[in-house]
Amino acid sequence: MSLRRAALIAAAAVELAACDRQPTTDARLLFTGDILLSRQVAVEMQHTHASPWDSVAGLFGSADWVGGNLEGAIGSDETCVAAERDMCFADPDTTPLLLARAHFRAVSVENNHAGDVGAAGRARTRAALETAGIVGLDFEHSPRFMRVGNVTLGVVAVSLVASADGQVQSLPSIELAQKLRLARSLANIVIVSIHWGSELQDWPNASQRADAEWLVGHGADVVVGHHPHVVQRPECVHGRPVFFSLGNHVFDQRYPATKDGLIADCRIHSSRMRCGGVRTHTRQGSAMPVVVDNEGAPALGACAVDLTPSIVAGGYTLRPEPWSKTTTDSGIALEGWKDGVMKWRTRRVQLVSLQPGLATEGDAHSLLALERHPSGMDDVVALRPHVYDVDDRGLIARWRGTALAWPLIDAVVDQSGRLCALHRGDSFIRLDPHDSATRTMRYKWNGFGFSATPDSSGACAAAMRSG
Known about the structure:
By secondary structure, this protein is α/β, with parallel strands linked by helices. The protein folds into two domains: 282 residues, Purple Acid Phosphatase, chain A, domain 2 (4-Layer Sandwich), CATH 3.60.21; 146 residues, no CATH class. Strands 1, 2, 5, 6, 15, 16, 17, 18 and 19 form a nine-stranded mixed sheet that branches. It has a six-stranded mixed sheet with strand order 7-8-9-10-13-12. The radius of gyration is 23 Å and the shape is globular.
């Protein structure tokens, strides 16, 4: 073989490996504001025999992925748990079909009306959506992974506004940081759908701004907000587009400002994403949006986001199995890709974190996984650390400890390849999960197990805060 031919083959191999790792698909992603399909919206649909999305069918048809925020849950008025009956959004059984026909790929079901018909309504809504081929995004099952071409989206849904059944999330939180870290590790783009802010206030409040900075600092590439029911102008926050409020998309409110909406419009090209907005308007007496003259629509040109390359370990590009109707509650499976072909897929596990770079004698090649499993050590389902290497067989378990020195709250791999862990204050000898004390420890991986040293310098505590 000539040197020139050998060089060409080597270059082609490098190019294939780069294609595995680096997402190259051109794509258009849309995300809408609040969607209501009960109350007067249902009356209008019944009277007109029209879909709320007839006027935007061309726009949605041009997109590769469409998401939104669904206010309410599938159920009947008789099952409402909301204190005020006229504020109970019990969506009709036709909701999933309407959304699917409008080309929605995912909708957030994490908001202050998601629990209007109780816990059974939440479960019913997610199941019905997923049967129709739509991902129902909630906090418990976040992040959800979807694939557009060879670009993996990781979406986390959060609500900071309490629902009728009492569910609400807080920010900052370790659990949310873990979800964002997992999305950051396995997705090329991390999207946060968040219910927050003050109703009918057309500017972001101080809490929204602080929360946006935290979300971006913990891995969000784009933040799409809803709940105020009016548009709040998006901004570039530390290089990431933040749509504080997209306003109403399909809704029956009458206040003039609630008739204007914004659709987040993000384009991927050459492994880079740029976002802008598409303006909509709904006439008085109707809930069906129309795209309007886009003059003055926000363009966030300064927020050019480079897509995050996928993890490569043992010569394989690791990707999460994309969403399908069969993977709703069964955890996450990882796929190993090489030369543009999927070579293997792992079993599904309740994966909380996956981080490369765990070092042995300066050689950072192992993966740290945090998984939820039961153990006879404490007789509960809890966070368990695992160490994996990767080869042609897939993930090879090097260490499956049920725990480190103490019950685990969280752990990250720091820049030097050491493991930083946040532990509870109790011990396996005397379990007390309600003990509010915590301790941080630094661990060195020696290829067979971990040796621990106290975090005397505070470096691990800092790594935990930033990670």
